[in-house]
Design brief:
The protein has 287 residues and is α/β, with parallel strands linked by helices. The protein is built from 9 helices and 12 strands. The protein has one domain: NAD(P)-binding Rossmann-like Domain (Rossmann fold, 3-Layer(aba) Sandwich), CATH 3.40.50. It is globular and about 55 Å long. The structure holds NADP nicotinamide-adenine-dinucleotide phosphate.
C-alpha cells in the first residue's frame, strides 16, 4: 500500500515519519513543498502519476494563525485551493484523501464539547480558510476523511510547547491566557490515529468516510498547558494567568474548543491518552 504524505517537513509530517517503521506494509512517499506544491494541480498530478498512492495524507497547510489575518490570499490558496486540488487529483487516481482540519472552524461559544455535526462559524481568516478546504473536499471527492484536531504540539518543528521552553530559558516570568479552553494534541498520537484509519480501511474494508474529531483526552487552558510543561520539566518560573483581553492578537481564537471524540472511538476503536501523559512522552523525546 502506498501512502503519500504532503507537507512532510511540518510537525505532523515529521511525526508520521517518526512512527513509520511500525508500518512495514506501507510504502510512504514523503513530499515537501518543493516536491509537491498542493496549490499547483499539475504538479500534484505528476507526483500522483509517478507513485499511484492508495492514500494521500494532507498535512500541508498555512498554519500562521495571526499572520493569516494580513495574508488571507495566501492562506486561502494553501488551505482551501490546495485541498480542492488534492480532492480532484485523488478522484482522478481513486486515492483516499485523509485531510487535517481544526477546532478554529468553531466560534467557541459552546459550553460542551463540539460534535462533528455542530455548525462551524470561524472567527479568524485561518479558521475560515480551513473550513473552505473542508467544503472543497466534500464537494469534489467522497472518499475522504477529514480529521479535526486542536492545539497540536510535538518534539518536532515549532509549537506552543517548544515556545514555552524557549521563553523559559530567556526570562524569569511569563503571562499566559487562562480563559481559552481546549485540549492539547500530541502530533505523534494524531499520526498514529491517521494510520489506524488507513490500516482499518485496508484490512476491514472499513471505509466510513467523513469528518472525525481527534485530540488527546482532558481539558485545560493555555495557562494550564504552560504550567504543566514547566512542572513536568522541573522549571521554576513566575507564571501568571491573564485574560485574553490582556494579550490581544490579530486573529480571534475560540474561547472554548474542546472536541467530542465519541465518533472516532466508536468507529475506529481508538484509545486516547490523557494530554498530560502524552505531554510527558513528547518532553522526554526532547532530552
Ligand atoms: N498546529 C496546530 O496547533 C494545529 C491545530 C489544529 C489543526 N492543525 C492542522 O494540522 C495540520 C498539520 O499542522 P502542522 O502543525 O503539522 O503544520 P506545520 O508544522 O505548519 O506544517 C505544515 C507544512 O505544510 C507545508 N506547506 C505549506 N504550503 C505548502 C504547499 N503549498 N504545498 C506543500 N506543502 C506546503 C509547510 O512548509 P513550509 O514550512 O515550507 O511553509 C509545512 O512543512 C494542518 O492542516 C493544520 O491546519 C494544526
Amino acid at each position: 500500500m502506498v501512502v503519500l504524505v504532503t507537507g512532510a517537513n511540518g510537525q505532523l509530517g515529521q511525526s508520521i515519519q517518526f512512527i513509520a517503521n511500525k508500518y512495514p506494509n506501507i510504502e510512504f512517499v514523503y513530499t515537501d513543498f518543493q516536491e509537491m506544491d498542493i496549490t499547483n494541480i499539475e504538479n500534484c498530478k505528476v507526483v500522483f502519476a509517478k507513485h499511484q498512492p492508495h492514500f494521500c495524507i494532507n498535512t500541508a497547510a498555512y498554519t500562521a494563525v495571526d499572520k493569516a489575518e494580513s495574508e488571507s490570499d495566501k492562506a486561502h490558496l494553501i488551505n482551501a485551493v490546495g485541498p480542492e486540488n488534492l480532492a480532484k487529483v485523488c478522484k482522478e487516481f481513486d486515492t483516499i484523501l485523509v485531510h487535517i482540519s481544526t477546532d478554529f472552524i468553531f466560534d467557541g461559544t459552546s459550553k460542551v464539547p463540539y460534535l462533528e455535526t455542530d455548525v462551524p462559524n470561524p472567527k479568524s481568516i485561518y479558521g475560515q480558510t480551513k473550513l473552505d478546504g473542508e467544503i472543497a473536499i466534500q464537494k469534489n471527492w467522497e472518499k475522504h476523511f477529514i480529521v479535526r484536531t486542536s492545539w497540536v504540539y510535538s518534539q518536532f518543528a515549532n509549537n506552543f510547547m517548544k515556545t514555552m521552553l524557549r521563553l523559559a530559558s530567556e526570562r524569569d516570568n511569563l503571562s499566559v491566557v487562562n480563559d481559552q479552553i481546549g485540549t492539547p494534541t500530541n502530533a505523534v498520537d494524531l499520526a498514529e490515529v491517521l494510520l489506524k484509519i488507513i490500516t482499518s480501511c485496508q484490512t476491514e474494508s472499513h471505509e466510513v468516510f467523513g469528518i472525525y474529531n481527534f485530540s488527546n483526552e482532558g481539558v485545560c487552558s493555555w495557562y494550564d498547558f504552560a504550567a504543566t510543561i514547566f512542572h513536568q520539566k522541573g522549571i521554576e518560573i513566575d507564571l501568571k494567568p491573564i485574560p485574553t483581553d490582556s494579550y490581544p492578537t490579530p486573529a480571534k481564537r475560540p474561547a472554548y474548543s474542546v472536541l467530542d471524540k465519541k465518533k472516532i472511538k466508536k468507529v475506529f476503536g481508538v484509545e486516547i491518552k490523557d494530554w498530560k501523559e502524552s505531554l510527558t512522552v513528547s518532553l522526554n523525546h526532547l532530552n
